Amino acid sequence: MNYRHSYHAGNFADVFKHITLIALLQHLQQKTNPFCYLETHAGIGGYDLNAEEARKTLEYQNGIEKLLQNPIDHPLLQVYQELIKSYNEETASIRYYPGSPLIAYHFLREQDRAVYIELHEEAANALKQLFKSYKHVAVHNMDGYQALKAFLPPKEKRGLVLIDPPFESPDEFTHLIKHIKIAYKRWATGTYAIWYPIKQYTDILPFHRQIRELGIPKILSTEFCIYPDDTNLRLNGCGLIIINPPWQLDDKLKTILPHLCNALTQDPHRRYRVEWLSPETP
Hints:
Elements: H1 12-28, E1 36-39, E2 46-48, H2 52-57, H3 64-69, H4 75-86, E3 96-98, H5 100-105, E4 113-117, H6 121-130, E5 137-140, H7 144-151, E6 159-163, H8 172-186, E7 191-198, H9 204-213, E8 219-225, E9 237-243, H10 249-264, E10 271-278
Parallel strand pairs: 1-4, 1-6, 4-5, 6-7
Antiparallel strand pairs: 2-3, 7-9, 8-9, 8-10
Helix pairs in contact: 1-4, 1-10
């Protein structure tokens, strides 16, 4: 494994992903029944933006830093913005960016729990160290796709699975399709959020077609691009496949994403998309 999220922490893709993640977790909080949050590729959990890796790319400057400089007046965005600020109260500028494990933990209640999976041993050890004194959190050093078999269905019977692979393998989309099918067969009522990169959009179309062919009802696709999606030379955008999304999530994202696009870039090719890949009934 060569991927290190430290180079990319707080970039536009993180902002998009974490805002959507918060919307999903807020929905789970609406019922008192416990829920389980499972993350298959958790990384180290949090990131120092003054570290060498982040300073080398400065990707956070076109992500979280730009958003905090151009704050958006929307309840969901305010929750996200205040959460990030809470990790930087002693600094004049943003220095620390919480990854999705820390963000998700913020929304756990006494009755809820989180399971964080990380394959890379060094990253898994860092994650264990980060959460060693946290309640209701388990960290496992194992393959994220195998974790779907090991931990689904959860005893709580409700919850969210975030699948956020590094896309180092050219066959990653194929792996995703295979393991989404396995996971859904084990736990058809859970909510799944599957992240994917967008470089050339022509590469995404077969993935969407294969998702549709799974025959799973209630699949929402949401995408966010700040550059033209026509080159493999860089990350131009990203998307999330959401299985069993909460009611009206599509409308909420359609309200937020135009403002987020305008806050993070003025590129004329910026775009967002929210569309159903499959309706409520197959």
